[in-house]
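Contributing new complexes? Match this layout with F0G.
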Amino acid sequence: MEFKTIIEPFRIKTVEPIRQTTEAERIAAIREAHYNPFRLRAEDVLIDLLTDSGTGAMSVFQWAGMMKGDESYAGARSFFVFEDTVREITGFKHVIPTHQGRAAERILAGALVREGSIVPNNTHFDTTRANIEHERGEARDIPIREGHEPATLHPFKGNMDVAALERVLKERRHSVPFVMITVTNNSEGGQPVSMQNVRAVSALCRAHGVPFFIDACRFAENSWFIKQREPGYADRTPTEIAREMFSLADGCTMSAKKDGMANIGGFLAMNDDALAATCRTSLILTEGFPTYGGLAGYDLEAISVGLREALDEDYLRYRIRTVEYLSERMTAAGIPTVRPAGGHALYLDARAWLSHIPQSQYPGWALAVALYVTGGIRACEIGSVMFGRQPDGSERPASLELVRLAFPRRVYTQSHMDYVCEVLLYLNSVVHTIRGVRITEQPPALRHFTAKFELVSARTAQ
Ligand code: F0G
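Output block (do not edit by hand):
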C-alpha cells in the first residue's frame, strides 16, 4: 500500500520555542522598525519566512561532522573533505570556499567585470547585480517572456531567453566577460531552469568562447524539478542531474546557506587555472587563506554533509510539496501567486492582489507589513523597493511586485503552514484596507535592507 500523505522526513530532536505576540505589540514593533521587516527583532516574529538562506535546521550528521572540524589555518582536513564533496557534485577542478554566496560573486565580478561589461543572466539576484554594478558593469536580465507573467503556467519559467543571449553575444561578444544562469530563478519566483535551456546556453557560450557560470544556490531543488518535469530525467537521481548540469558550465558561485543546508558558507568553483589563481589572490585579501576562505573548519564539514542531504529524494519531495500545498490553497481562494509554485518559496503577486495600491506606493512592501501586523509572519518584498532604484539614482518600477514567503529548510511543520494559510485567507477578506508606503530614508544601494518607510494615509492613497 502506498499512502499519499507526504510527511516531514525527519523527527525533531531539539526544539526552539517561538513567541506569540498580540497585534498591538506587532504594530508597535513594526513602527519601531520604520515599517521595514528587515529591521524587526527576530524574537518579535512568529513564523519567519523572510528567507530560506542560512535559516535551515541542521541534521544530526551535520552536527556530528562539526565536531570533526579541523581548525588548522592551512591545509585543514576539513577543507579536503569539502573540496572532494564539491568536486564530486560539480566536477569543477578549483574549489574556493567563501563566507557566503555574495563573496564568491564579488571575487568573480572583481576578476572579470570592467566598466562597460555586460553580464547576461536569466535574472540576477540582488547581490549578484550589485556586485556587477559595483565594477561598473551592466547586469542584464534576459528571462523568457513567461518569467514575467505570474499567472502563465510553464514547467521551466526560470529559463533564459536563448535568442536574446545570442543577440548579445553576436553584437557585443567582447563586452561579455561571462554569462550566468541562476538555478532556480529566485527573483522571478524560484522557478526552475530546464536542462535543455542550460545546454543551449552552454552551446552558445562555447561557440562564442565566453565562460559560462551557474549561480547554483538552489541546484538541488532545480534538479528535482528537472526529474519531475523534463522528459528523459524521471529515472535519474538528483545527484546525476546536478552533475550533468554542472558539466555544461565552466564554473559556479554558490551560497551554501541554501542547498548547502548550512547556516553560513559558500564557494566559487571553476575549471580555468589562471582565473582560479586571480580569484584566490582576491580571496586572501578579504576572505582568508584558500583552504578556509572565511569559514571555520566545522562550517566546511557541515556544508559537506549538507550538500549531499539536499540531494536526498525524500527530502526534496517533501520540500517541493510543502510549497505546492500552500500554492494550491492560495489558488483555490483566488489569491494571485506566481504559478506554478517555486521551489523554496511561495510568491504572492502583490500588484494583482493589492491593485488599489499604485506601484509608486510599493504594494509588495505594503503587503509584507500587513502580513506581519496581522499574523506575525515575516516575508520579503521582491519588487520596486528591491529593484526600483537605478544606478543613476532614478526610480523605475520593477516588472513584478512580489512578496516572497521563503521556507527555511526542515524548520516548520504542516501546522505552521496551515496557520500561514489561515492568515492569508483572512487578509484576502480585508485586502482593500491595506495601505501603501512611502520611503522616508534610504541608502544608495541595496536599499531594502535598511530603508525607512511610513504608511501612506488612507486619504492620500485615493
Ligand atoms: N544568488 C541567489 C540566487 C540568491 O538567492 C542569493 C541569496 C545569493 C546569490 C547570495 O548568497 O546570501 O549567501 O550571499 N539569497 C538570499 C535570499 C539572501 O533570501 O534569497 P548569500
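Reviewers usually confirm one structural detail per submission. For this one: The chain has a mean pLDDT of 96.
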